[in-house]
Amino acid sequence: MLGHPHTYALFSAQIVGTDLQFTEVTRNDFLKSSGDHSTDHYIVDSDNELLYIVKMSVEENPNLVFRFLIFRMDFSTREWVPVHDLGELTVFFPLFGHVNNSAICCVAAKEGVKPNAIYFFEIL
C-alpha cells in the first residue's frame, strides 16, 4: 500500500515596497507515510529547474530505500510533471534520513559524477 495523499502548496514570494506578497503557484497531493513505509519529501533546485522528490523507504529501516518519485515544476502550466530520467543531473541524499530533509542536485559533468544518478552521502 502506498499511503494516503498529503497536500503541499508551492508559493512564490515577492517584495513590493516594504511588503512581502505571496502567490500560490500550485497545490498538489503527494504520498505520505503508511504503516509499511515512510516517505521523505524534498524540494530541490536543479540547474534552473525545481524538483519535488519523494523518497520511499521501509518503515523499520529508513536506509532501505525502495522507490523515488520525482517531479519537475512546469511554471507555464503550474503543474508538477513526473520525471523518469534526470538527464545530465545527479541528486545527493543524506545516508541517514531526516537530516533536515536536505538534498543536493547538480549537473553531473560539472562535478565529475555519473549523470542520471542518485547518490547517498554520510555526514561525519
TrEMBL record:
Residues 30-121 form the KIB1-4 beta-propeller domain. PANTHER family: DUF295 DOMAIN-CONTAINING PROTEIN. This is KIB1-4 beta-propeller domain-containing protein. It comes from Quercus lobata (Valley oak).
